[in-house]
């Protein structure tokens, strides 16, 4: 695996060759995701730019470490930004009269906060039992209780519900006991 800080440093110094390589390797996947999820090519370009800017600003500020591949991390940032964009569009449509110009600095700060929350969640998910991890991944993917029951050979959907409840509580406890939790909930 390539040193991920190489890409982050390239963003900070505006290394056009490396940035072009990042585009070549990653933009198609991001564009495909956004177009499949109610977006246009221009939306994908905007989101990709925002994601690169967010990564550069955050790395310049705190020199964070990416524990996955740079490509996977960038894609997750883009997905989160696009989901936020879709959610904010719902609000804009229903509250047409109260529109204010968007503040890009605030937008970046919220995106960074959201990314940090996602990182805490995924790291915490890795700390629970393998059984709970599998159950919660199915639960979060909106898999039917009946299907989970069959997969794990449980006696009833009630048992599945109880197991999901216990696993969610275990995950919540890990998240809440993490030293980053308080800082990530104060906004």
Descriptive report:
There is one protein chain. The chain has nine helices and no strands. It is globular, with a radius of gyration of 19 Å. Helix content is 77%, strand content 0%. The two termini are 35 Å apart. The protein has 187 residues and is mostly helical. The protein has helices at residues 4-12, 16-36, 41-62, 70-94, 104-125, 130-140, 145-152, 157-177, 181-185. The model is unreliable at 91-102 (pLDDT under 50). Helix 1 (4-12) crosses helix 3 (41-62), helix 2 packs across helix 4 (70-94) and helix 3 (41-62) packs across helix 5.
Q: Which tags fit this structure?
A:
187 residues, mainly alpha, 77% helix, globular
Short description:
The protein is mostly helical and 187 residues long. Helices cover 77% and strands 0% of the residues.
